[in-house]
Amino acid sequence: MGWEQFEHGWRRASINAPAKGLVVLMHGVGSNARDLMPLADIWSEHLPDVAFTSLDGTDAFDGGFGGRQWFSLRDVNETNREARVAAAYPALRGVLEAELAHWQVPFERLALVGFSQGSIMALHHVAASTEGAAGVVAYSGRLASPIVARNGTPLTLIHGEADEVIPVRELEDAADAFTDAGYTVDAYALPGIGHTIDADGVALGREALERALGGVSRG
């Protein structure tokens, strides 16, 4: 199946129509929807009843070159990051709801995949929303939000031990916080890997999505 561009990014229909599940991909700061589309190309054959949407960040990147962002990193710090993420969420929430309506899929058959800033937004959705998701795969991210929701979303956190952009301790902190809040968390720190997604990370993500959505054809 090929990709089709739309207002907020790109869509890839399920191999078997109609779609019974949806994976939404969210890129890192300064990138765009095309960045994570190769993941869907790899995963789709294992999830034939699942559609994929790769989103562009809701704002233009303000860092001096093209690309998109979910929130600004200018002067961001531990004090103001939480508020920026919370302020960015309603726009993302609106796009998620529109995509679920487009594919006629409910929240319980939605999985979120994020990289870096996209992971921050995905984890915020889990931490803050009543509905949650069927699963979240968060690459190289951090938890920037208080966990106020108890929606039971299974979480897969994947991080390179050599990440110099977002240190791997953020993986540990997020895993501990969600576990303490009663969530099921699978956390993987990958030796020798920096701020990127390697082949092992791709495989771990596929396995997580198969757990989350692999049974939709039987639902």
From TrEMBL:
List residues of the Phospholipase/carboxylesterase/thioesterase domain. 16-202
Gene3D superfamilies, per database record: alpha/beta hydrolase (3.40.50.1820)
Superkingdom of origin organism: Bacteria
Instruction: Give one Pfam family, short name only.
Output: Abhydrolase_2
Q: Which InterPro entries match?
A: AB_hydrolase_fold, LYPA1-2/EST-like, PLipase/COase/thioEstase
Report if keyword Protease is assigned: no
MF terms (GO), sorted A to Z: hydrolase activity
Extract the SUPFAM superfamilies matched here: alpha/beta-Hydrolases
Keywords assigned by UniProt, alphabetized: Hydrolase
UniProt record similarity statement: Belongs to the AB hydrolase superfamily. AB hydrolase 2 family.
Name by which UniProt lists this protein: Dienelactone hydrolase family protein
